[in-house]
Design brief:
mainly alpha, 3-stranded parallel sheet, 10% strand, 6 helices, 158 residues
């Protein structure tokens, strides 16, 4: 599993092309390279888990480049699962909603955190443990029949 990802919020009409390129270089190219290397190194019967985002479904204004990059992660996940046919390697993605990580809490103003926490029917931000539980399931024996999927872990946000 890898979790590298960046975002530069801006309206599509205003987003600097250099920011777009950087978002895609980290989020898409990073996932591509990790998937390529993992597919060469993960033993038969193993698991690969990518990190997507619930913003692909939510599609909020200002996150066009980020959501598009994570949609590419979803496509890479489904394709790699098919390309690894016959090796018993599962490839899935987890798509978290807003999650109370140290980076999120540091970079998101308190009023925005409150607004985001109110959106999911569960009425809170996700926690790192919420996301870790989904990943743990996907790489466990119980998750062996889940393959080529994007699992939305967002408290019902989208």
């Amino acid at each position: 599993m890898h979790t590298a990802g960046i975002n530069r919020p801006a309206a599509l009409t205003d987003l600097d092309l250099a920011d777009f390129d950087e978002i895609h270089r980290v989020n898409v190219r990073g996932t591509f390279v990790v998937g390529q290397q993992a597919s060469r190194r993960v033993r038969d019967g193993g698991s690969i888990v990518n990190v997507s985002s619930s913003m692909v479904r939510v599609a909020p204004p200002g996150l066009s480049a980020y959501a598009a990059s994570k949609a590419a992660v979803d496509a890479l996940t489904r394709i790699l699962a098919k390309e690894l046919r016959g090796r018993d390697i599962t490839v899935n993605a987890v798509a978290p909603g807003p999650t109370a990580t140290a980076a999120f809490l540091h970079s998101t103003p308190a009023d925005e955190q409150e607004q985001l926490a109110a959106l999911p029917p569960l009425g809170r931000l996700g926690t790192p443990d919420d996301i870790a539980g989904v990943v743990s399931f996907l790489v466990s024996a119980a998750g062996r029949w889940v393959n080529g999927q994007v699992v939305y872990a967002n408290g019902g946000l989208a």
